[in-house]
Design a protein that fits this description.
heterodimer, A: mainly beta, Immunoglobulin-like, 4-stranded antiparallel β-sheet, 50% strand, B: 113 residues, mainly beta, globular
Chain lengths: 113, 113
């Protein structure tokens, strides 16, 4: 049984560009949450998707958007990239809107130059 | 604002000794707490959780203690092993309000041979 998978593993972008990160949840999970983890810091909650809708959102600008597909996989989109967007982006999946244990993927390392 | 903090950024422990990692939280409304372990290049891994109606919970080699009076959380690891080397995060959640998990900054556990 595959756990949470994310792609790509690493990504390098230039300021002002747009990026899309992808996440496949653990089998049987219906909820996906996205986190940003800056170097040396704890993960910061970006938003959560359940039933293809954004249910919760953290303190992130509208440049951060997402989508959840009928198969529960999810995408995180970031527009107009800033140097400060460089971080590890983590996806976590769970069952029942996060009221169950969250399983994290390995993350996508985004570097903005 | 909401925050979860840790007292020590780095903890060095002799192999075989017990480790105690501490955490202070500021949101008295939080009712669910989780400890995560994050190894280099990986996403956070669930270790153990505790609800606010409990003050102690034990797992395999790990114990979490919760003191709501002083808003303090600790993780005890018995007979620390080299594989325990990682960054440990405490996290909090108010499950009545939302599903956002708020992470602290982390403590790096270093095992001495």
């Amino acid at each position: 049984d595959a756990g949470v998978t994310q792609s790509p593993t690493h990504l390098i972008k230039t300021r002002g560009q747009q990026v899309t990160l992808r996440c496949s949840p653990k089998s049987g999970h219906d909820t996906v949450s996205w986190y940003q983890q800056a170097l040396g810091q704890g993960p910061q909650f970006i938003f959560q998707y359940y039933e293809e809708e954004e249910r919760q959102r953290g303190n992130f600008p509208d440049r951060f958007s997402g989508h959840q597909f009928p198969n529960y996989s999810s995408e995180l989109n970031v527009n107009a990239l800033l140097l400060g967007d460089s971080a590890l982006y983590l996806c976590a999946s769970s069952l029942d809107r996060g009221h169950d244990e969250q399983y994290f993927g390995p993350g996508t390392r985004l570097t903005v130059t | 604002g909401e925050s979860v903090g840790l007292h020590l950024p780095t903890l060095s422990v002799q192999e075989g000794d017990n480790s105690i990692i501490n955490c202070a939280y500021s949101n008295s409304a939080s009712d669910y707490f989780i400890w995560y372990k994050q190894e280099s290049g990986k996403g956070p891994q669930f270790i153990i959780d505790i609800r606010s109606n409990m003050d102690k919970r034990q797992g395999q080699r790990v114990t979490v203690l919760l003191n709501k009076t002083v808003k303090h959380l600790s993780l005890q690891i018995a007979a620390t092993q080299p594989g325990d080397s990682a960054v440990y995060f405490c996290a909090e959640n108010n499950r009545i309000r939302d599903d956002k998990i708020i992470f602290g900054k982390g403590t790096r556990l270093h095992i001495l041979p």
